[in-house]
Structure formats: C-alpha cells, structure tokens
Protein 1
Amino acid sequence: MATSEKTESGYFTSEDVDAAPANINSVLVNPFIGMRHEKMDELIEAFINKTKIEDIYHEVIRKGAFLAQDGEAFGGPRTDSLRLKPEEIEALRREDPKTGNKWDQPWILYALVAVQGWDETAVNGAQLCSLNWRLMLASPMLLPLIAAAYVFTLPESPRWLLLKARQGKTAYYEKAFRSLCRLRHSRLQAARDLFLMHHLLDGEEKIKQNRNRFVELWSVDRNRRALVASLTVMFLQQICGVNVMAFYSSEILSPVLGDKAGLLASMGFGILNFLFALPAVYTIDTFGRRNLLLCTYPFLAFFQLLTAMGFLLPSGSHSRTGLVLTGMYLFSVFYSPGQGPVPFVYSAESMPLYVRDLGMSMATATLWFFNFLLAVTFPRFQYSFGNTGAFGYYAAWCVVGWFMILFLVPETKNLTLEQLDARFNIPTKTHARWAVKEVVFVVEHYLLGRKGASRPVLSVPTESEAEMDKRRLPPRKLSMEIEQREIPDTEA
C-alpha cells in the first residue's frame, strides 16, 4: 500500500513518486484530482499562510484553488459561500474553447512574440557592400537593442518568481500573482494558475529527487522516441537548406540579377516566408504536424533541385533568372507552413513534463548547431561544387528527410498528455510498418481511386480497469497492433 508523504503544501504518495515514467504526466497535470473538500481547505489555508498574500486576494485565491481542482467547480450548487462574480464568469467563458475565441488573449501575450530574422536580412545585404565587414557586424545591432529595451516592459515569468519565492523570498509570491494578472483576463484565472503552479513545483521537486532525468531521457523508451522525433525535425529544418537562402540569397542572386536587384529579390524570399507561414496557424492543428511535413517535403526537394538546375543555364539569360527565382521563391512558399513552424511546436509538446526542459534544450541546441554548420560550410560547398552541386545536396537531404519523418516522427495533433504517452510507447519498428501501409493506402485510395482500399489504423489497448484501480493512476498505454479498417465506398 502506498504511503503518504506530506510536503509543505501538498500530498504526494510514494506511489506517485515511484510511478512509471509513462504515468508521471498524470501526477504533474493535476495533483488535486479526487481530493476531498476538507483537504482542499487545508491546502488553501497553508498556501495563504505561506505566501502572505494581501487579505484582499484571499477570496479569489480560494475560488481559484477550487477551479484548479475542477474547471466545473462552480457549475452547480456548492456547500460553501464561494460564488463567482459576473465578470469572473465572463472571463472563464472567454477562455473556454467551446464558448470563447482562442485569439481573445490579453495584448501582452501578443507583445511577447518577437520577429525573428531581421538581423539575417541585414547581414544578407551587407555582404554586397564595400564596407561589408563593418556593416555585417553593425547592421544587426539596431533591432536587438530595441528588443532588449522592450523586454523591460514585459512581466517577469511567474514560474521564475515562484522559484525565487520558494527560496524564502515570500514577497515574490505576490509578484508572481501580479505577473499572472497581466497575462490573464481576470484575477480569478491568475489565482487559479498561481495555486496550481505552486503545487506542481512540489511534485516536480519530489520527482527529481528520486530519478535521474537525463538518464531517463535516453533509457525510457517513451522519452527516447519523443527525443529522437524532436531532434529529427530540428535537424531537418536546417539541413533542407533554408538558411542558405536566408543568409546568402543576395550573394547567390547577385551574379544572376546584379547587386541591387539581387538584394531586392532576396527580400522577396523573406516576404514569402512570412506570408505563407500564416496559414500554419490554422493547419497545424487541423491538418496535423506530421502530415504538413510529409506533404511539403517532396516540394522542398523538387524546388531545391529546380534551383540547382537553374544555375546550369547560360549566365545572364532570362531563363536562368526565372528558374532560379522560381525555385527559391516556391521553396519558401512550401517551407513556411510546414518545416518552418512545426519543429518548435512538435519539440515543445512531445516530451513528458518531467523531462521537457531537458528535451527541449537538446532539440534547440541541435537546431542551432546545424544552423551554424550550414552557414560555415556553404561557402566551401559553393566553391567546390558550385551552386548547382550545393543546392542538389540540400535537395537530396529533403528526400532523405521525407523518409525520416515517415518512420521516426509520429503525429501529435490534438493529443492529451496521456495520449502522447500512448503514441510514443508504440515501438519504432511497429510505427514504421504502419507508416509503409499508410503510404500504400494513400496511393491506392487517393491516387489510383480504389475506394474500397483498407486503411491501417493504430490501436493502443490499455490496462484493465482492475489494474487501473490497483495502481491508482491513469492507465499506462501498453502495446499497439495494426488493424485493418474498411473505408466505405462513397461513390454511387
């Protein structure tokens, strides 16, 4: 039987702490599930006493705590005197995806979004100027300086403030609450998130004391598969050659168009990159991360190859100019909604909560390492193999990348944390076999028009209810098998 261990502000059992890694998410998502009203009152009182938040916030903290336990806590009759105000009900309605608008967020959240790549444009153009090294060093300074000054107007990270508060600096609890108030529509939402974040930190600390997270990042199958998938998409984002065009497009195009026209043409690449990234705001959650990559990578390979072939045409000819620009611009069009945004979203969501910071750090480091490698090797590639050989090399990697995504990158669209555990618990070999059958189905059903073709389906059985009750944790998803499902013939 599990023993209970009381922390300063919460209860975590030895069973929670020793839980299999596939189930740790359930411990960290909501530590209040199933807790009695009396126990919640104890936690709330302990939290208020510890944080020493002003008395005027005590009521909203209490309401926020019960909302942290259950989003429907105020949806029916209550035995206590806590009631929501009309403006609090409205704030929760705006937040609910069923009744609100996902774009209806405090303006400060949008202000946190920074524009990336302007410094690349400055460096890009500086390569063509007579004072190139001075401009290359100085031109990227302006926008980062503006961004650095702007940072001081933004609220501090509530999580960071809570970590400082847990070191004995009690005043930081109220600072964290005020920061959350700027990031939410109402104090109620800020109080709810503050209470939940504080107790989740208890769970994180307890879990870290009993396991080596870095080792489990590699040794636990579910973690390793998510890490491999994340590193794959980050690696491919760079090796497809996009930043060769971002960094060197002016230099590449100047022999084709001339210096000034080459610089203007390189701006077109950046503009297209921005414009065609906008549809991903919708498609990344509807079409899916994996599907976006699989559908766009053949085009990336084709247009890199088209660009490479353009440099084989006679220098100065209109056909060479047209083919090179067409290849580069259409590459940007298909890169932007797929391989542009997907790696960051995918890496951030695929890792389990308890190792997410380590996994995301490694994924980001991989991206910037290959960004650096691409930037320093292209001039040598260009000198040794010419533009045709260099772009042909990146086209080949796009072909290889399609197969890497097919076999190593599972879909994560609209999956809960527990469903992500299930998806990444599927053995890689099994997923690869299913992927091959899925490709065969797509060819037969959509290209050859065989409407009765059977589509392979991933099914993940769970443990029995008896095993669930015995372990007191949500079910650990076990094995996976490929089933056949008939696709009904919709034609008359």
Protein 2
Amino acid sequence: MLDGLPVVSGGFARGMMASRLLRLASRLAAAAPRSRAPRLALGAGAASLIAGPCLSSASCAPASTPPPLWHKCIAEAFGTGMIVQLGCGVVCAHLYAGSAIGPGAIAAVWGFSVALAAHLTHRISGAHLNPAVTTALTVTGKSPVEDAPAYIFSQCVGAAIASAVNYVIFSAGIAAMEVEKKIVRGTAASTASFNGAFGMVPNPRLLTPAAAFAAEVWMTAILVFSIFAIGDPNGGVPSAAAPVFVGATVAALVTVFGPVTGSGMNPARDLGPRLVTLLAGWGAAATTSWWVYTLGPITGAVLGGMAYQKLFADLLPKKV
C-alpha cells in the first residue's frame, strides 16, 4: 500500500495515482476559504470632494504612505496658479490684446481652467485650490485643521506667481490701454486698468461694496454647496466626472455674476493678482474692495458647506 492506494504495476498504476491526486487537490482547493480583495476607501478627508476612480490594477493598489504636506502644497500652488493663468489670462487677452472673445466664452474658459486644475491635482492634495474651499472643508471636519494654513499660503503663492507671469506678458498692452484711456496708474480711477484681469472691483452701476460682499457670499455658498454635493460619495456623480461638474458650476456662476462683481468666489484668485498690481505701481488703488473678495467668499463657503452637511448629507442612502 502507498498512502492508502493499492500498488498496481506499470503505467496504469501511475495513471490511477495521478488521477486520484488531481481529484484530491481539487477537493482541497474547493474547501479552502476564499479571500476577498480589499475595497478602496475613496473619499477620506479632503480628497472625498473630487476623487477619481482607479484607472488600472496598479493604481488601485493602496498607497504605502499619503503624500507629504509639502507635496500637497506644491499641487495646491500649481493648480491655483493654473486657474489664474488661464482664467485671468483670458481676461487679459480681451482687455489688453484686443481678443474678440465674449463674456460667455470667458466664463467657459474659467470653468475649463477649474476643471483641468482639479483633475490634475485631486489625487495629490484633494484639489481645494481656493482658501474659501479649504476653510469650509476644515470647519466641516473634512480636512485637517493643521493643513489649512499651508494650503491657503500655497494657493495665494501660486496665484501671485501666475498673475506675475500674466503681467509680464501683457504689460505693454496695459500701458497702451492706460495711454488710450488717459488712466494715471495709482489714482483711484486706475482700478479700471486692472479690474477683472488682476484684482476685482464691484460694478458701481449695480452694487455698493456692501451689496457686492453679499453677492460674493451668495455665489460662493452656491459653489461650495455644489462641490459638497458633487463630491458626496453617496451621491450620483461618478467620481471621475466631479472636476467637470465643478468646472461647469463655476462657468455658470461666472456667466451670471461676472458682470456684477467679477465673480470672485476665491480669495487667492483676488489676493495674488492684487499683490502684483500693488508692486507694479497701482499702490493704494490695488487694495480697493479687497475685503469683498476675501471675506465674502470665505463666509459663503462656510455657509454653503454647512448647509449641505446639515440639510442633505444624511438624507442620501449610504453606499456599501
């Protein structure tokens, strides 16, 4: 006897043994417990707002360590800079280079720039790209408090660098505009030569600064409410499409509010370019209505984010 099998001479015996061993191995494999592949927990922390799906088996593997804070800050600076480079850049092209692009197309460029920047950075930093968004995420517990100062500083630095590049490119056109319209840089009236392309000033025919503040609160609340809804992991928006939906929201809001306040919604987008104009000779004129575009968006973002969390977040069925 050999392991309970009768010994039979010749090739037939070997065939019988092989057949029985194969059946035994098959039974053991069937009886073994099946291991289940671990699910990825998308949406932890800030990245929950705009988190893309795994694009390959390699990208689905859990990361050994999250990106360090300095790496996230570079992503935030880069993404915010891209928004200013493209969004403010298209306004510069219109004002200083004679571009015939209209308001609707300008709004579309703003939306596209936000969508592109968010798509490129969301896997690294969560794609805040806006101090108001960072504040709302921090207040609602979706982003670490200790990361907020570094994120906001990086966003403003990225916006300032991109705005400085825009100024270098279009400086001759700015000077020509000032000569043509008899604008003296540094006077109160010189806000007309940077408004929209760099910092922003409310349309005085429509709103007082206080009313412009209220408008910035309102539009930013809509934007951040939408961002929270779009990025809700229990919602119906595919995570890969989130940057596109956020960009479309921005474009729609710019179409409506652009002629009214300039549609700031992002303190870095205003403060970074204002710093450039302050250093480029506009002086005190560069600080006109700055508080409207810093305090207004931050207030609106917190209200919009908290409104979504309180009113809608718990109503959606939880996905498993």
